[in-house]
Amino acid sequence: MIKDGKFGKYGGIFVPELLIPALEELESAFLKYKDHSGFNKELNYYLQEFAGRPTPLYFASNLSKKLGCKIYLKREDLLHTGAHKINNTLGQGLLAKYMGKRRLIAETGAGQHGIATAAVGAMLKMPVDVYMGTEDIERQKLNVFRMEISGARVIPVDTGSKTLKDAINQAMRDWISNIKDTHYLIGSTVGPHPYPTMVKHFQSIIGEETKQQILEKEGKLPDAIMACVGGGSNSIGIFSAFIEDNVELIGVEGGGTGLSTDEHGATLCRGTNGILHGSLSRVLQDKDGQIKEAHSVSAGLDYPGVGPEHSHLKEIGRAQYVAITDPEALRGFQLLSKYEGIMPALESAHAIAYMEKYAKKPENKGKTIIVNLSGRGDKDMFLAAKLLGVET
Ligand SMILES: *Cc1c(COP(=O)(O)O)cnc(C)c1O
Q1: What is the pLDDT of residue 277?
Q2: Catalytic residue list contains 85
Q3: What is the helix, strand, coil percentage profile of the chain, to 5?
Q4: Mean pLDDT value of segment 302-315
Q5: Residue whose CA is closest, atom 5 of ligand 1?
Q6: Residue 82 pairs with which residues in a beta bridge?
C-alpha cells in the first residue's frame, strides 16, 4: 500500500468489503506498470499520436500586455476530445488491457468523461458502459450521442437525484458484480485508493511538460500556477511538478451564482470533512451529513466532493483555493476569446477569471503566471451565447 493511500488525514479506502480485492488488484497492477518500459512506451505513443501531446505552453502576449504580467497558457484544450481528461482515460484504459480486463465501465455527469472513455474504448477495442443519471441524459443529449456513436452504451440511472452521485453508486454496483473482467475507469483524482494517486500519475505529464517548457522559455520557474478544480485532476496534474518548488499554487473552484450566501459549490472553500465515493475529503454536506447538490455554470465543476490530496494541500497551506462565480467565469470566457482568440471551456474560464483578479493586484505586477487551460469551449458555445443574451 502506498502509505494506505492517505494524504495527511485525507483519502483512504471507505468502500464495501466486496470491493477491496478489486482495489488491491488495481493497486498492484498500477505499481507494476507505472514504471514498466513497455507499458510507458505504448502509453506515450497513444498520448502523442492519438491525443496530440505534447501540448504547447503558449505565451498570451495580448493579455500579458493588458494586465502587466507574463501570462502563459498550458494548452490542454488542444487535446483530442477537447480536454485533459484523455490523459487519464488513455492511462487507465491501457492499464486495464495490461491487466487482462475486457470491459470498461465509467460514470459521467455532463458527459465529458464518458466521451473520453468511449473514445479510448473504441481505439483499444474494449466495450464501454457509461452510467448516467436520467436528469443528466435529458440535459446532455448531444453528449449521449457522442458516446453512442463511438460504440459506448449509455445506461440510464433513475434513482435518487438522477445525477452523477447516483450514477457513481450504480457503477460501483456493476463493478462488484463483474470484478473479474471489468475495469472501473474513474475520471478524476477522487474515489478510494489507488484512484487519487493513479489519476494524478496519469495527469502529472501536464506538470512535467510545463516545467520543462517554462524553463526553456523563461529560464526560471513561474511565480504562480492556476487551474480550475472540479474533482481536482487537471490542477493536481499541473501542480505535481511544482509542489517542492517556491511557486504559488492556486486552485479555482466554481462558486455558483454568487447571489446567495447558502450557495452550494466550491467544496474546498465551503465544505467540511466527510466521506464521499470511498474516500475522506472535503465534502458539501448539511448538518446531518446529507450530501448537497453542487451548482455551477460549468458542469465539470459541479461536484459536491474533491480529491483528497487537495484537502491536504489546503490544510498544510501548500496550495490556496478560491471561488469564482458564474458571472465572473463568463467574463473570463469573453476575455480570453476576445484578447487571444481562444475560447476556453467554462471550467477553465474560472481559472482565467481568477488570473485577471490576481494580475490586477499591485503586489503581483510583472509576475509570471501559468494558467492550465483544461479544455476548449466548443461544448459550451450554446450556453455561453444564451447567458450573454445572444440568439443562436
Ligand atoms: C472535467 C473537467 C474539469 C474538472 O475536472 P478536474 O478533475 O477537476 O480536472 C475541468 N475542466 C474541463 C475542461 C473538464 O472537462
Answers
A1: 87
A2: yes
A3: 50, 20, 30
A4: 93
A5: 230
A6: none
Q: Are 121 and 150 in contact (CB under 8 A)?
A: yes
Distance 229 CA to ligand 1 centre (A): 7
What beta strand segments (E) does the chain contain?
6-7, 10-11, 57-59, 70-75, 103-107, 128-133, 153-157, 182-184, 224-228, 248-254, 272-276, 279-283, 319-324, 368-373
298 a catalytic residue = no
- Catalytic annotation, pick one of 76, 107, 340, 356: 107
- 52 contacts: CB under 8 Å, gap ≥ 6: 78, 79, 80
Q: Is 348 in the pocket of ligand 1 (CB under 6 A)?
A: yes
Q: What is the mean pLDDT of residues 172-193?
A: 96
Residue 246: exposure state from Cβ atoms within 10 A (0-12, 13-18, ≥19): exposed
Alpha carbons within 13 A on the beta-carbon side of 139: 18
Task: Tell me the pTM.
Answer: 0.96
Q: Whose CA is nearest to atom 7 of ligand 1?
A: 233
Query: pLDDT grade, residue 260 (50/70/90)?
Result: low
**How many other CB atoms are found less than 10 A from the CB of residue 286?**
10
Q: What is the pLDDT of residues 51-78, one digit of tens each?
A: 999 999 999 999 999 999 999 999 999 9
Distance CA(203)–CA(37), nearest Å, equals 18
Res. 203 pLDDT band, cuts 50 70 90: very high
pLDDT for residue 335? 98
Q: What DSSP element (H or E) covers 25? A: helix 20-33
Atom of ligand 1 nearest to the CA of 348: 11
Across the range 94-100, mean pLDDT stands at 98
> Tens digits of per-residue pLDDT, 6-52?
999 999 999 999 999 999 999 999 999 999 999 999 999 999 999 99
| Cα distances (Å, whole numbers) of residue 239 to 209, 306, 361 | 12, 15, 22
Task: Tell me, yes or no, if 41 is annotated catalytic.
Answer: no
Tell me, in angstroms, the distance from the centre of ligand 1 to residue 60's CA: 22
Q: How far is the CA of 303 from the centre of ligand 1 (A)?
A: 10
| H/E element, 333 | helix 326-340
